[in-house]
Amino acid sequence: MRNIIKYLFILIFSVFIFVSCSNGGGFESDEVFITLNIYNNIDDHIDQITYTKKSGGSEYDGNNLERFGYDVNKEGYIFFGGFSKPNGEGKQYLGVNNVLKVDINNYSQYWNYDIYLHYEKEDTDNIIEVSYVLPEGCYIDGELPTTLVRGKYYAFPNLYLDEHYFSSWRFKAVYDDFTSKDFGFYTSSENKIMCYNSYPKIEIFPSLSSYKNRFYIDSPQDLLNIKNHPSGEIIFVNDIDMSGVNYTPFEFSGSIDGNGHTISNLSITTTNTNAGLFTVNKGKIQDLKIKDITINSLNEKTSYIGALAGTSSGSIIDVAVGGTINSEMGVVGGIVGKMTGKDFAGCSSDLIINSGNDGASYVGGLVGRMENCNISFCINSSTINAPSTTVGGVVGSISNSNMEYCYNYGSVTATGSEVGGLIGKADGVKMLRCQNEGVVTGCNSVGGLVGVLDNSNVEILTNLGEVNGYDNVGGIIGKTLSSTYAQRQMKEVVNEGKVISVGSNVGGIIGYLDYDGSTFVLDNLTNKVSVEASGNNVGGIIGRVKGFIGFNDEDVRVNKITNCTNEGSILGSSNVGGFIGDINLNASNPYGRHPGIKIEMDTINNIGDISGENNVGGLIGNGTSQEGKGSFIKNSTSSSKVEAKHTIGGIGGYLNYISVDTCSNADSIIKATSSLVNENGSYARVGGYCGVGYEIKNCTNELDISYLGNGSYVGGIVGECTGNLSSCINKGDVNASEASLVGGVAGFINVSKEYHASSLTNEGTIKGNESVGGLVGNFVQQMTGIKDNEVHVSSFDNLINYGDVYVSKMFAGVIASVYGDAANEYLRYPTVKVTITNIENYGDIYVSNEEEMASIGGLVGYIKTDSEDSYIKYYKVSTKINGVLVNETNTIGNNVNASFIEGEYIPK
């Protein structure tokens, strides 16, 4: 041997360190100095080594660990080193960057350990000739070097051989007359070799072990041969071009590792029930690409089509497909037609999918139909054209599954129903962190992410794509429903895609929310773009909310919506709102019980302009809930322009049994252009907060309300009111000079039960034609069908008017007219009693047509009840009527007994 070998042995026994050196034959070498350190801190150039020290044959516990390492440097020399047992076996060599990594635990049965160093001069002839012994039929994924230079690292390729497992490369020394024994493993786990042996020639060969069911794919023929090994372990070692190759799909149940390789130009024309690379997959397929595939399914009986498999009950991970799928019928998916029971993750599709028959159903960019699966981190870029139902950019139909981190960038176009940017229909699904950017077009139940969402919960969803449809169209969900008694949740959802519909039930987030038999919690929903529809029930967040309870219990089912914002303009016909277009909650009692349903809406905001024909509100267009169950909207704001023909309000257009509490219409503009005309009259129903409202409290109107039509019911707070009013202030002028029943707070209060109003104030000028009040135009309590002899009391307390009143006909006052009547249909004699306390008026009354005036009062223009005990107490009045100061006889316009009132006359 021409090399000089020097070893440094370290014998560690207790704390004794023995160092020895030996020199091999060949040529002389300069003296080499090596520094050995024993320390507790890890050297910058070498990995930590931990070992268990032996003493007297007994092993220390894990707390007695020491670390040692070494750093060797000498200019002009190349160093190698290793670790071995005392018998020389089990050598471990320095790896890349001269780092020695040793697992001392493997050698804990010995008392001493050898660390040796081997060096050579860099100017030595270090070329080693290499030959290879390779098995027949193997595939190597790179170049094999024919010469090696000692002291340098080489990355060797991998070797693949069917039914074998390759672990590493090994070598033998070659002499003129013989070949040495096998010198053991030679490469690292990364297949990197550091060549340091002293032999001029070596023979390298693979270390292989038998692996009977493993097969490597290197050619089109190998791919065809998978059919002969349908349960095998398949490993791709090369890209496969299937141009011109006749391929017939088959069932597969083994495992495939594509290693990132691509199958390209595969063409399949079939009439089979299942169509794809495989008809059925029951195994695991991962890290595989399919490019430029063409599938033509011509038979109308074809059931399941996908680029990878028609159906799959095995897992599919990191699979990408591209090409074209044409299908007349069946369940079509970009990757799998039908997927059941396993994981589907990291997959992507960039296809053109054409479903040419309207009889097809369940079409998805990745999966047509999915059941009992987990799908995550998937992307669809496919273009989908389908005259089908249940079509989604990622999945057509999904049930009892989880979906997270999925995205759609492709356009989805269908002429059927249940169409979504990600999912056509979802049932029993948990959906998290998904996004759509593609244009979505369908007929009914069309959503930016989901067409129909049933019995499911969703969170953190975003839509950026335009959504087009007919009925039940939403920026996120077209229609969502739940038929089971469970609470459903939707949280942190944003729509930034324009929503366009030629039908009804259209919303920036949800088109139609139908929750029969269950409850929902919606939180932090935001719509940032316009919603346009030619039909009814159009909302910035939800088009329509419907709930029905018919269970055999006494429960009140509570539905909650909080922290929602609309920023887009909203256009529709009837029932149009910046938040919700229409609410319809009801309950039936088939078993003699009294179930209930309510909706609680808190912290809702709208800044988008709203336009419609009737029942138009800054937040809610039309809303009806169950009486007495406490539905409300509170702490909410609308700051927008609201336009309608009639029944219009800054918060609600028409609200029935839904109270308004602590809301604001600041900076809004209310514009009504005509009225509702029927056999009973002409109705404008215009209010700063509600056109028609129920209970309203803690609200202040600062808007000027202008209505130029001749309809009735115009108020600074509410046009027509059917519930109690409290703590409401009007600061804006109300200009409705052609209208009837006009009031600073309420134009018309119409109730059929006991009523209570308190703490009402008007500071604006109020102008109307007929029956105009500083606070209320007309109050009517008309009760029918009462089965008792009781007195039913309605009350007004703490009423203040500072504004002037302008009127042409009938009645005028703080309250223009009061009417209370109880009809008796059961031979009883109930009565209605009205009490008015703490009423003040500091505004003047101006009459333009005295001949048509019935009565004018400084407090009440006209009052009539069927109880002699009705009264006004504790009043203050400082008012002029047409320039004439009000006195004690004209505080009430009609002729009543003076004992009816008690108060204070304050001259101006």
Q: Structural class per helix/strand content?
A: mainly beta
Quick one: overall form? elongated
- Kindly provide the radius of gyration, computed on alpha-carbon positions and rounded to a whole number of angstroms: 43 Å
DSSP helix count? 1
**Residue runs with pLDDT of under 50 for 5 or more positions:** 1-74, 79-120
Helicity range: under 10%
Beta strands, count: 97
Mean pLDDT: 82
Q: Determine the N-to-C terminus distance.
A: 129 Å
Q: Characterize the quaternary organization of these chains.
A: single chain
- Strand coverage percent: over 45%
Task: Give a short account of the largest sheet.
Answer: 76 strands, mixed
Description:
The chain is mainly β. Among the domains are: 6-121, no CATH class; 127-210, no CATH class; 213-404, Pectate Lyase C-like, CATH 2.160.20.110; 690-708 and 720-908. 1% of the residues lie in helices and 58% in strands. The strands form nine sheets. It has a 76-stranded mixed sheet that branches. The protein has a five-stranded mixed sheet with strand order 13-11-19-16-17, with no helix packed on it. It has a three-stranded antiparallel sheet with strand order 3-7-4, with no helix packed on it. A hairpin with a 2-residue loop joins strand 95 and strand 96 (884-885).
